[in-house]
Write a structure and sequence with these properties.
This protein is an alpha+beta fold. It has 21 helices and 22 strands. The structure holds adenosine-5'-diphosphate and magnesium ion.
Length: about 625
């Protein structure tokens, strides 16, 4: 009998399994039981469409039997079974649906993570067993086959005897070693607790023979052992159970079991709705951003069950894009089992559920922001960007749902604050919500444009994410307060005094500013006396809707839109350089040219914009020095 080889990646995985650390080994049982449950599901589905097949609930179960004497553990099911080809294809290569397909090399090497986080299906059996034997008889056939393997060297398939349809997985449990106890997998108590821990919500009974004691009839005081078959799992899915009976850990293990994420969820939401539409839902807000979250590959959606039967893995219509990070499931009795995807989109019930869910998520997030700030900030770090996209997309249609969930760094608080918090502490004379944009907090801290607003004692929101300003523009105003960039033309706080002096200077030096504007033709729209600068000599500001920061973002987009903000070069007329400018204007036009270009380039640098000709700029500096 020829041995067949495993495919290369399967070999690698097998090796990893065998050398995994002990504490994770017990999950092999979860994997095998979940395969059995899937196999019974398959019969169940078939029976739904096939009149010849009836599904009697009592006939379908999973049985776990241990035999210490032979060190064997058997997991049997009455599921759909496998043909010879299926044994070959499904167990000879890593399962197609298995979670490994999308893992990359580095993660594969780091076996610890992968096993803990994903579970790896059938191969996990080799963590606990030296030899794995699978005897299976598929539905609609009277031939059975035996698949057997001792691990990495390959496997064999031969004809076998089996009475009923289904699959037996027989594990020859490893011998105990100095630091690893495998006996637990042969003991009633150990097995029961592993099943309880990981497979309690499996919908079919998981049976075990348990040893019990009874009094011996006629002999007082004497007891004898007898064996009784018991169902170990509670079978009631977690979402149908009473919230009060469930602990955080129950939800966490559900999250884990369902592979919703690799992290511990920050929050779970358990909904049992019995209003217009009856449904149960368990939703999770993950802590970490999934590795593909901000890519096209990421698919949002919730699992959708109709009365306990999974009908769709990722029902996208249940979640708005801005809450696409939410994981979980919905089970409703009001949905038809064989509803098609197209019909589902128009389903009134589904729309109602989606709306309820959206509101629940929103109120949970608001609650978190209010009462669990630290968790909310963690959440925001992972998914805040998505919320901001949500505000911006669809022409701001969702801003009312989202604006209260946004956080921005505050110049005053030195931490993230919400718009509500900002507005609540605005002094009475403050008209606008001020913000400044830049690559980083440190950079914005040094922006000359912030001087006047900061001096006035007003709080400034720092926008460091490229989407930020677009989001605020979509909101337009919050609690009747408009947003105002510290770089915008009119800040609405110029003190009369400085305003007047700037105006006076501007009138007096009209010709100077006009010549400077001529020198910077095509680069800036205007040169004028600044009303906001205190200690810095120059800055750029913008007129009109498009800010300098937005110009940067739009230009860096893949199909680089060639848009330009209307830039204004502001000169601090109280700064010493202004005197030099005036002198140059009077006496030396070439010098004026030099100074103007220098100042303009400085302003660009401060703004984080590229200088057109850096060599010329450095040459200009040298000219000033000599
Ligand atoms: P997954 O369950 O993610 O598909 P597994 O490695 O756990 O990956 O299983 C591989 C495949 O082997 C399954 O998809 C299924 O087709 C088949 N299989 C495993 N166990 C059984 C079983 N008890 N009954 C029928 N088919 C099974
Ligand atoms: Mg599996």
């Amino acid at each position: 009998m020829a041995k067949m080889e495993f495919k290369a990646e399967s070999k690698r995985l097998l090796d990893m399994m065998i050398h995994s650390i002990y504490t994770q080994k017990e999950i092999f049982l979860r994997e095998l039981i979940s395969n059995s449950s899937d196999a019974i599901d398959k019969i169940y589905y078939k029976a739904l469409t096939d009149d010849q097949l009836t599904f009697n609930k009592e006939d379908y179960y999973i049985k776990v039997t241990a035999d210490k004497a032979t060190r064997t553990l058997k997991i049997s099911d009455t599921g759909i079974g496998m043909t010879k080809e299926e044994l070959e294809n499904n167990l000879g290569v890593i399962a197609k649906s298995g979670s490994l397909a999308f893992k990359n090399e580095t993660e594969l090497k780091d076996g610890y993570n992968i096993i803990g986080q994903f579970g790896v299906g059938f191969y996990s059996a080799f963590m606990a067993a030296d030899t794995v034997t699978v005897i299976s008889k598929p539905l609609g056939s009277d031939e059975a086959f035996k698949w057997e393997s001792e691990g990495a060297d390959g496997y064999t398939i031969v004809p076998a005897e089996k009475d009923s349809v289904g699959t037996d997985i027989i594990l020859k449990i490893k011998e105990n070693t100095e630091d690893e106890q495998y006996d637990e997998f042969l003991e009633e108590y150990g097995l029961r607790s592993i099943i309880k821990k990981y497979s309690d919500f499996i919908r079919y009974p998981i049976k075990m023979d348990v040893t019990r004691q009874r009094a011996v009839e006629g002999k007082e005081g004497e007891f004898e052992d007898y064996s009784e078959e018991q169902t170990v799992n509670s079978m009631v899915p977690i979402w149908r159970r009473n919230k009060n009976e469930l602990k955080d850990e129950d939800y966490e293990s559900f999250y884990f079991e369902k592979r919703y994420g690799f992290d511990k969820p920050l929050k779970h939401i358990h909904i049992s709705a019995d209003g217009a539409v009856v449904y149960h839902a368990i939703l999770f807000i993950p802590e970490n951003t999934p590795f593909d979250y901000y890519t096209k590959e990421y698919e949002k959606g919730l699992e959708l069950y109709s009365n306990g039967v999974l009908i769709m893995n990722k029902c996208a219509d249940l979640l708005p894009d801005y809450f696409s990070f939410v994981k979980g499931m919905v089970d409703s009795e009001d949905l038809s089992l064989n509803i098609s995807r197209e019909m589902l989109q128009h389903d009134r019930q589904l729309k109602q559920i989606a709306k309820n869910i959206k509101n629940k998520i929103k109120s949970q997030l608001l609650g978190m922001l209010k009462d669990e700030r630290e968790n909310y900030e963690k959440f925001y770090k992972s998914f805040g960007r998505q919320l901001k996209y949500g505000v911006y997309s669809d022409y701001g249609a969702n801003k009312d749902d989202l604006q209260d969930l946004l956080l921005f760094y505050s110049s005053k608080e030195k931490k993230q604050v919400s718009l509500g918090e900002y507005v609540a502490r605005m002094p009475e004379d403050q008209k606008y919500i001020y913000y400044a944009t830049g690559d980083s907090i440190e950079r914005i801290d040094k922006l000359p444009q912030t001087e006047l607003v900061a001096d006035k004692g007003y709080e400034i929101l720092y926008l460091t994410d490229d989407i930020d300003e677009f989001a605020l523009k979509s909101i337009m105003s919050y609690k009747d307060k408009e947003f105002k960039s510290v770089s915008s033309g009119d800040l609405g706080i110029e003190s009369d005094e400085s305003e007047k002096s700037a105006e006076a200077e501007e009138n007096e030096n009209k010709d100077l500013f006009a010549s400077m504007a001529a020198i910077l033709e095509g680069k800036v729209k205007e040169v004028k006396a600044s009303k906001r600068l205190k200690s810095h000599p120059v800055c750029l500001s913008s007129e009109g809707e498009l800010s300098i920061e937005m110009e940067k973002v739009l230009r860096s987009m893949p199909n680089g839109q060639d848009v330009k903000a209307d830039k204004v070069l502001e000169i601090n007329v109280h700064h010493q350089v202004f005197q030099s400018l005036k002198d140059a204007f009077d006496k030396d036009k070439e010098k004026l040219n030099l100074y103007t270009n220098l100042l303009y380039n400085q302003a660009l640098l401060i703004e984080g914009l590229p200088i057109q000709d850096p060599v010329e700029f450095t040459n200009d500096i040298c000219k000033v020095m000599v």
